Amino acid sequence: MAYETIKYEVAEQILTITLNRPDQLNAFNGTMQQELIDAFDAADKDDDVRAIIVTGAGRGFCAGQDLSDRVTGSGPPRDLGRSLENFYNPLVRRLRALPFPVVAAVNGTAAGAGANIALHCDIVVAARSAKFVQAFAKIGLVPDSGGTWLLPRLVGAARARGLALLAEPLSAETAQEWGLIWKAVDDDRLIAEAEAMCLQFAKGPTIGLGLIKRALDAAEQNGLDRQLDLERDLQREAGFTSDYAEGVRAFMEKRAPDFSGRGG
Ligand code: T3D
C-alpha cells in the first residue's frame, strides 16, 4: 500500500510497518497519525496478515508528537485533550485490539508517545543501542498514549514514577532487566529476531493467539473469579477451532502442525 509517512510491506503473512520520517526521528505529524491508524485498519481486514512488525526508519524509532506542529505563537493554545481524543487514544485502542501478535522492533530512541506505542505492542524487542524516554515532563506534559497505565504495570510504582518524573533515557538493556520489554538484542540482529518471531506467529494458531491476547488484556482489570470464567469461555472458543484439532493431531502423529490462519 502506498503511504507518504510510513512503509507498509507484506511478506509471508507478516506486515512490516516502518515509521518513515527519519529526519524527525519518525515523530508523528497529522499525516503519519492518520496513516498508521489506516494501516492497522487495513491489516485487521486483510486475512493474509497474521503478525505485524512495527519499526522505524533511520536512527530513531519514534520521537512522539512532532513538536514543530506545536509551537505556539500569539494565538490561543492548542487543546491537547482533543489531540489525544482524536488520535493517540484511538491509535492505542486500535493497536491493542488487533487479533494477532504485534512486535515492536525498536531500532533507536523511542520517546514520548513513540515509547508508549512501542510498549503497547505484544512483544517489544529493542536494539541494544535503543533508548526509551518518557520525554513528556521535559516539556511540561503528562505521559500519554496509556503511559501512566502501562508503566506501573510493567515496572512497578517506584520505577514508573522515576521514569515519568525524571524523563531520563532508559537503555534497552535496563529496560529488559526491569521487565519493560521482552529483550534487547545486538543492533544488527534486531530485524532478524523480530522476523523470526513473526514467522512463528504467522505459522501459528492465529485465532488461539488472539484469544491469549484477549485473556491477558482482560486480566489487567479482572479478579480471579472473573478471569477463571473468561478462561472457560475463551478455552471453549479455542477448543472449537480447527487449529486446535490440527494441533492435537500433529502432536499425536509426531509432525509439525499445519495451522490454517485467521479462518482456523
Ligand atoms: O501534542 C499533542 O498532541 C499531545 C501529545 C503528545 C505526545 C508526545 O509524544 S509529547 C512528547 C514529544 N516528544 C518529545 O518531547 C521528544 C523530543 N525529542 C527529544 O527529546 C530528542 O530529540 C530525543 C531524546 C528523542 C533524541 O535525542 P537525540 O539527541 O538523539 O536527537 P536530536 O538531535 O534531539 O533529534 C534529531 C532531529 O530530530 C532533530 O532535528 P535536526 O536538528 O536534526 O533538524 C530534532 O529536532 C528532531 N526531533 C526529535 N524529536 C522531535 C524532532 N522534531 C520534531 N518533533 C520531535 N518530537
Notes on the protein architecture:
This protein is an alpha/beta fold. 45% of the residues lie in helices and 16% in strands. The protein is built from ten helices and ten strands. The chain has helices at 30-45, 80-96, 113-119, 147-155, 157-166, 172-178, 190-202, 206-219, 224-239, 242-252; strands spanning 6-11, 14-19, 51-56, 60-62, 102-106, 109-111, 123-127, 131-133, 170-171, 183-185. Helix 1 (30-45) runs parallel beside helix 2 (80-96), helix 4 (147-155) packs across helix 5 and helix 8 (206-219) runs antiparallel to helix 9. The longest helix has 17 residues, at 80-96. It is globular, with a radius of gyration of 19 Å. The site of ligand T3D has 23 residues, from helix 2 and strand 6.
Write the topology of this structure.
Blueprint: E1 6-11, E2 14-19, H1 30-45, E3 51-56, E4 60-62, H2 80-96, E5 102-106, E6 109-111, H3 113-119, E7 123-127, E8 131-133, H4 147-155, H5 157-166, E9 170-171, H6 172-178, E10 183-185, H7 190-202, H8 206-219, H9 224-239, H10 242-252
Parallel strand pairs: 2-3, 3-5, 4-6, 5-7, 6-8, 7-10
Antiparallel strand pairs: 1-2, 8-9
Helix pairs in contact: 1-2, 4-5, 8-9
Bound molecules: ligand T3D.
Q: Count of DSSP helices?
A: 10
Q: Quick one: how many beta strands?
A: 10
- Radius of gyration, whole Å: 19 Å
Q: How large a portion of the residues is in β-strands, by DSSP E? A: 15-25%
Global structural class: alpha/beta
Report on the biggest sheet.
Answer: 6 strands, mixed
Order of SSEs, N→C?
EEHEEHEEHEEHHEHEHHHH
| Overall spatial form | globular
Helix content: 40-55%
* Unreliable parts: none
- Which strand order does the major sheet show? 1-2-3-5-7-10
User: How confident is the prediction overall: mean pLDDT?
Assistant: 97
Distinct small molecules? ligand T3D
Q: Please give the alpha-carbon distance between the first and last residues.
A: 26 Å
